[in-house]
Structures
1.
Amino acid sequence: MSVESMNAAVVQKPDQLSVQKMPLPGLADNQVLIRVEYCGICDTDLAIVHGIYSRDHLPLIPGHEFSGSIAEVGGSVSGLSVGDRVTADINLGCEKCSYCRDNARLNCPECSQIGIHSHGAMARYVSAPADKVLPLPQGLDPALGALVEPLSVSVRAAKLGRIGLGQSVVFLACNFMSLLHLQVFKLCGAAPLIVVDPSERRREQAAALGADFTLPQDGATARAVMDLTNGQGADVVVECAGSIPGYELAFDLVRPRGRLLAFGLPAENELARFRPFQVGLRELSIIGSCAGQGEDVEQAITLLQYERLNLTEFTRVRYPLEKINEALAAYEEPDGPLKVLISMS
Ligand SMILES: [Zn+2]
Ligand SMILES: [Zn+2]
């Protein structure tokens, strides 16, 4: 390619994000260069911008939820061609250790995630290893393609949470990820789906996207959940906000032998209180779930291909790369859009 530099959003220091010229990403023999079309902003990006994650990797181009088309392929790449519309599994590992072999690269000692540990897609171009690059189905809106990565996270959460037919699920917090979980868990047959959030507006959004019940988060939440689950408590409670009061409340909402799906990430050193007696006596399970990887990503693409989900509304709010700081400010507004995409075209 004749282009040598590109515009990219770069976090230089915590709370210092600007669009600047950067060299084009290098292209190793086993990599492809992707011309980015859309890149989603998520809470992880906010954490990077504010210096909570990735401090050791600055300056960094963030962006790990993206779609685009292949601009160039490395010398040893086969099966992918210039012009193919693609996304990528952002989780790179050594591919040799037991975690990599078990599709759990996040725990590989060499784990590196595109846009979190290495330069990402809030730029005109991003490079990725060819074996992590996945073609998008023909005709799929590339804006939806940028949602593959977060959707793969929900696919993994459904699997690790062993979500099944007729299982009651409580989601603590209504945000983009809990609404993805809600739709994926509904596909798995979970019912009823109960969303707890202090904001009435958010509760309305949850109801519109398929929640069977919505509840405010207050002193009456546990009683209300009992009433909706035959006096037992929910089969599964998913904490989606990374809130310590949310984690502590979860133990009051889950039924004996139920599962607490720990999804929302509080700050690294925060502590929550729970009673081990209660966990042991009631045979509760606490299950963690984080990034979608490998086949989770492929399955997310299939769900989009066959239109199993209603995600279009999450592609509506778009900003050009040059307005990245306005886009972040809009996303951070308490009543702001649940998803914001950066459009590169
Ligand atoms: Zn994300
Ligand atoms: Zn590994």
Note: The mean pLDDT is 96.
2.
Amino acid sequence: LIDVFEKAEELVRRDGNDFSWSGWEDSGDALSEIHAIIAKLRALNMPANARVLFVPTGPLQELSLSSGWGDEFIRLADWYDDAEATVDCDCYSKPIGEFGEAIGTDARHADVFITRCAACGRSWLRYLYEFEFISKSGRWFLGPLRRELQDQVTPENALDLFEQMLWYFAGGSYYDGKILKVAGRPIL
Ligand SMILES: [Zn+2]
């Protein structure tokens, strides 16, 4: 959820933004509201005005439409919905152990699965890779899968989907058994 508001901050800071219909005076006004929300989230409080920023015709959407980044706003609002729905679920702090539904095997003989969290319903994309002749080569990646992408996962596009995620878990012998939160293209 904090990631979502940090992205909102980045959009609000853009040069050429037109604040006339947003209800905010200027970027300073918008940023102070966003910073207050991030501060509450860091203190593990859910701010009452968090959702208001993302409602249709709310301040951020009005700003996005008059400033030419309406599509980015829609994507951010989708992230917000997902983040809000799952904010309390353990699956975001502790990777789910069960593999779930097998999708297939890619050209590297890595196995791809979709795992559904029984508690919150969030789907996770999992990629398991091991090069059997090299020790410490085993690694797995597990990341939150966007709803509209669930039917589109194939073994071949799995790595691209990880690359598009804000973050995902990485673990296995390659990482000395540690579990990390990483972003970018998975290391193979
Ligand atoms: Zn969950």
Note: Residues 86, 89, 91, 117, 119-120, 122 surround zinc ion (CB under 6 Å).
